[in-house]
Amino acid sequence: MKRFILIQLVLGLFLGMGQLSAQDEPPTIKVQKVAEDVYLYSYNIHNSLFVVANDTVLVTDPQNTDSAQRYLEEIRKITQAPVRYMVYSHRHGDHISGGDQFGSGFTTIGHVNMQGKLGPTSYGERLPLDMSFSDKLSVFLGDLEVQLIYPGPNESDDNIIVFIPDRKVAFQVDTVGVRRLPWRVFSGGKPSNWRDALKILADLEFDVLAPGHGVVGGKEHVVEYIEYIEDLINAVRERMDRGESLEQIQESLQLPEYADWIFYEQFLKMNIEAVHKEFSEAR
Ligand SMILES: [Zn+2]
User: Fold this and answer.
1) Which CATH code of 1.10.3720.10, 3.10.20.340, 3.60.15.10, 3.40.50.720 fits the domain covering 26-174?
2) Distance of CA 183 from the midpoint of ligand 1 (Å)
3) pTM confidence score
4) Cα of 186 from ligand 1 centre, angstroms
């Protein structure tokens, strides 16, 4: 018992130290202009898109309390125009908490499926929606149109595309990235749903892909992401048809074409598991 307490004490000390140093370490903040009027704000590994046009600001994802404060500071270096719209990419707390730091006077917008599922998280407050939609909604900053498109269930059942046709920019969070594997077991989503949603994204006319994590890319990165999911599904199903177990598939299956993608080593086995689960259930 004594030993247990001692271990706890030492562990607590270490954890405490970890927290201290994490707090002392300032976050990495970056703002990139990805097209005329369109910017990508990064706080450590999280990205949010914002649009400044015709004396109006539209922001997406405040992320968390600390991030939201810095986000607003960065916007104020560019414009004094009021923030009129706050668009939520999807309901996950690490992306859309902290909106209260923007004050008031703006309209929160998100997919109807997040209605009633918001509220506080460990990252801060997720403000309730003022406006929701099920398929598509256009928001106008003067004459600049920002389209919000729900491509069907993907990483979550409320994850949308933010598309600015006149600037040829598309922003999507968590469902796509530049040369990186889907998160763990596809975040619990169905791989075939991700693929189908990404096909809707790929059909839009854009040049700049702004993802919620990682570097900015282009249409080609959406296309190769779809190819990855298709290659994965085909390879897993082929082995399932041969009667191989999940463990056997995880042991033997490699997709060397994608070996240099981020998370390949960490997540390939979990990605396989997600496909196996979907197509076992489908039988
Ligand atoms: Zn997410």
Assistant:
1) 3.60.15.10
2) 9
3) 0.90
4) 10
